[in-house]
Specification:
45% strand, 32 strands, Cathepsin D, subunit A, domain 1, 416 residues, 9% helix, 15-stranded mixed sheet, mainly beta
């Protein structure tokens, strides 16, 4: 995506910055509009386990960002062609991330104001992607414009009420939180603007292995683990090869399986799904931060979570989702929404030899109905829910391929 496309990126103050005393080393400043305010409550959308919050950039209209604790610097991932946004002092840069491809070319912008409800973050750096590599809006079925993480977590005590879909940002100077015995607290390690926690997993053979995991609110998965990070970590005997996601530097493939359990303080979660990425996609990252994997939102959503960078700790209070089964798609279909906000669903990817593949469905098929439910009556979250139902559940799907309407039938298959 180039800057001379239909949407307008206005480069402001470039020649004035040296005279205004700005410096790239200047510490960002995030604050409550009312200094005496104890907290701000932000309702959020929870889509595929991910927290979506509204943000304004330099007095823009509202854009929607995923709260991602794995992100150091905010990333503007996509804009509509008719969007107009002011970004200050842009320059080209290349950045590294997960995936097998080359470093990604981005635009680096400094001295921006981000506002979230009654909070303002002045002098904030951000990346703007020259190319929309994540396609987050299409994957989530609603407008998603970016990712933000560290700059929120480092300035506030952050409470995430997954069940109530509320994000509460506390003023650290005025914060006090009473916790009953149901809370469990773990230390956090903050390194290079990312948070890590140590816990224990139980493997297929019953062995209990200590692991260091990245706290990753921006991952919809439960766990991912790298067997290359520790010789004691073993790939379970039963797994399936699959596409795991997209990183800054390309697609990530690997294996999806289950482990026996994972411990969150005093709470034991049994039979969680776990992803094991190919070493070529993640090995450099693993070596860089000396971790064994990541803890994602499929586990976090089972708790109310308080993330406290100031005191380097994280606390968990179980909610009614604690004992939910760890579900996954059992059809083999990945769905895109080409026009986010509209009930227009297209099969973007099909896992080889999956039930949907064997039923004859193909990439590019437009979904018209599922089990007599027309697409216009279904959200993407509801479709995901249907495709994660129990083993043997029957699916009747009507799709349009070119000018032909095709009906396919298959049963969901439990293969983990």
């Amino acid at each position: 995506m180039r800057l001379n496309h239909k949407f307008l990126i206005i480069l402001l103050l470039t020649f004035l910055l040296p005279f205004l005393g700005y410096s790239q080393q200047q510490k960002p400043n995030m604050y409550f509009i009312r200094e005496t305010k104890r907290n701000v409550i932000i309702p959020f959308k929870l889509i595929n386990n991910l927290i979506v919050i509204p943000i304004k950039i330099n007095n823009s209209k509202i854009y929607y960002f995923i709260l991602d604790s794995g992100v150091r610097t905010p990333i503007i991932t996509e804009l509509d062609y008719n969007d107009s946004i002011k970004l200050n002092y842009l320059r080209k840069q290349k950045i590294h991330g997960l995936g097998k491809g080359d470093p990604l070319e981005v635009y680096f912008s400094t001295h921006n104001d981000f506002s979230i409800f009654n909070i303002i973050h002045s002098n904030l750096n951000a990346y703007f992607l020259a190319e929309n590599v994540f396609h987050l809006s299409a994957k989530m079925g609603t407008q998603i414009n970016g990712l933000i993480g560290y700059d929120i977590f480092k300035n506030f005590i952050v409470k995430i009420d997954y069940a109530g879909k509320k994000l509460i940002l506390y003023n650290p100077a005025l914060y006090s939180q009473k916790k009953n015995r149901r809370w469990t607290t773990l230390p956090l390690e903050i390194n290079n603007k990312k948070a890590y926690l140590r816990t224990v997993i139980e493997q297929e053979d019953g062995s209990k292995i200590p692991v260091k995991l990245l706290l990753d609110t921006g991952s919809s998965l439960a766990l991912w683990l790298s067997v290359e990070s520790d010789s004691l970590l073993k790939l379970p005997s039963k797994y399936k090869e699959t596409f795991l996601g997209k990183g800054l530097n390309g697609e990530i493939y690997g294996k999806k399986s289950r482990i026996k359990s994972v411990y969150i303080g005093k709470y034991k979660l049994t039979n969680p799904t776990a992803s094991f990425p190919d070493s070529s996609s993640v090995l450099n990252t693993i070596k860089k931060d000396n971790r064994n994997g990541s803890l994602g939102a499929e586990i976090l959503r089972r708790f109310t979570v308080i993330i406290d960078y100031y005191n380097k700790e994280i606390s968990f209070l179980p909610n009614h989702n604690l004992h939910d089964e760890f579900k996954y798609d059992r059809s083999g279909i990945e769905i895109y929404v080409p026009y986010p906000g509209l009930p227009f669903y297209v099969i973007h990817r099909i896992r080889k030899d999956s039930p949907a593949d064997k039923a004859g469905l193909k990439k590019g098929d437009q979904i018209l109905s599922i089990n007599s439910n027309k697409n216009i009556n279904l959200t993407l979250n509801q479709i995901h829910g249907i495709l994660r139902r129990k083993d043997g559940y029957k699916i009747k799907m009507k799709v349009q391929r070119d000018n032909e309407v095709i009906e396919a039938q298959f049963k969901l298959k439990k293969d983990l």
